[in-house]
Amino acid sequence: MILTITHTTTNLSREATDLGFLLHKNPISLFEREFSYGTIRVFYPEATPERCTVAIEVTVDPVNLVRGRGKSGGTLGQYVSTRPYVPSSLLSVALNEAFRSALNGQAKEKAEFVVARLPLTATLYGLSGNTTLISRLFEPLGYTVQTEAVGVLDTTFPEWGMSEQHHVTLTAEVTVRDLLTHLYVLIPVLDNAKHYYIGEDEVEKLLTRGEGWLANHPEKELITNRYLRFRASLIDSALARLVEVEERNTPEAEADSIMQAGVGEEMLETPVRLNDQRIAATLIAVAELQPPARRVIDLGCGEGRTLSALWNAKELALEQLAGMDVSPVELAKAKRRLRVERLSEREQERLLLFQGSLVYRDERLTGYDVALLNEVIEHLDAERLQTLVRVVFEFARPRRVILTTPNGEYNSVWKSLPAGKFRHPDHRFEWTRSQFQEWATAVAATHGFTVAFSGVGAEDTEANRGTPTQMAVFDQCAVSLAPIGKA
């Protein structure tokens, strides 16, 4: 197996051979180390101030590689195989052995270049995977991808057929550490095999080496499935943690963290994220309903954070918990977060997740004590919002509706949020407190509910901009109004 990494530069303040400092390997020395399946060698085919190439070669003993693992591919399967020459998890192991300090972002000298994005070209020879898959994995990370089919397995024996491998060249301006971590994770993903047992520690390896890029990769589920070799329990654990990372990277979460950092030195306790505060306020509103709520539905449940909190709040003694969302992708995330596959048959009867839209009348929404509409209404335009109101308040008619939405007045507190911009690109509006209260009061009066208002999050008292989130709790009046038409 061979991988080369080339650094070229015309920058007078930097030499291409500085690559050696980042990799902790001197261009004039040969690094060689024996391991259980063969030998790792690191050397430099070229090393000039303008261009420097490092090569890592892994020489594998093909007999030791398969010995004791049963027969594969017939009697000669252990001896006639392309496996020892195909970049695989063995190459990832070699990268960790040879470049561990670089993978960890460490450098004794030239440390300022650790975070520098350098013009790098990596070439892998004989990589598995079709060209479409290779592009799907590397292009979202900013690489220009070039592939070349290996061709026939052996020109002397054309009857052996064509190779399924490709020579792959990746080019990008990227840090050395990021390039190595991308290769470390994605090489075995493309090979879709590992030479060792997959256990709990592999989840930690994946999340550690995927930090900063995997959570937002469009193919993170495919990567996780292949890296963990389709071990369902490990995949569930990894994806649930990646969902949490993805949530921390949302625009509102970033603005929230900046706001909290500004007052962090004055606080005695670790700040609580705004979304966690919304969930806590929601649970209180559910718990305060009398007689106690037994059936709760989260409308627009997303990836299931609030559902998970409700499910784990055993003191609520809920007999039925349901979540509905228009997105099957979000529902899949919710199922992973709640680990539905691991629930007993009785528990699965208590938990219901289904796809649906809030702009269509749906009999499945009836019969609940509480309906949640957390951070939902701002995603709808005026016409669809009016339809949602009728679907929830006129036809579903739970005893209580708990609704949260952003307070547009508070946006100016977050310096990272440009003036006139909403917290999320999909928001159609972000109401002021007076606009929200006027709308909610009209909804309550029209459909036979009372409504009470409160805020969620740290209040801005200096400029009287309220709290970042505003909440309305609607309760059915003792005498309900009859439905006024069809949705």
Strand content: 15-25%
- Helical run tally: 16
Side by side, the strands of the main sheet go: 2-3-4-1-5-7-6
Uncertain regions spanning at least 5 consecutive residues: 70-80, 253-271, 480-487
Compute the separation of the termini in Å. 64 Å
Helical content stands at 25-40%
Number of self-contained structural domains: 2
- Helix vs. strand class: alpha/beta
Report the strand count.
14
* SSE arrangement, N to C: EHEEEHHHEHEEHHHHHHEHEHHEEHEHEE
CATH superfamily of the largest domain: Vaccinia Virus protein VP39
Describe the protein in words.
The chain is α/β, with parallel strands linked by helices and about 475 residues long. The chain folds into two domains: about 1-195, Hen1, N-terminal domain (c-terminal autoproteolytic domain of nucleoporin nup98); about 270-475, Vaccinia Virus protein VP39 (Rossmann fold, 3-Layer(aba) Sandwich). Helix content is about 35%, strand content about 20%. It is built from 16 helices and 14 strands. A seven-stranded antiparallel β-sheet has the order 2-3-4-1-5-7-6. Strand 11, helix 15 (about 380-395) and strand 12 form a beta-alpha-beta unit. Helix 6 packs across helix 8 and helix 11 packs across helix 12. The longest helix has 17 residues, at about 230-250. Residues about 70-80, about 255-270 and about 480-485 have low confidence and may be disordered.
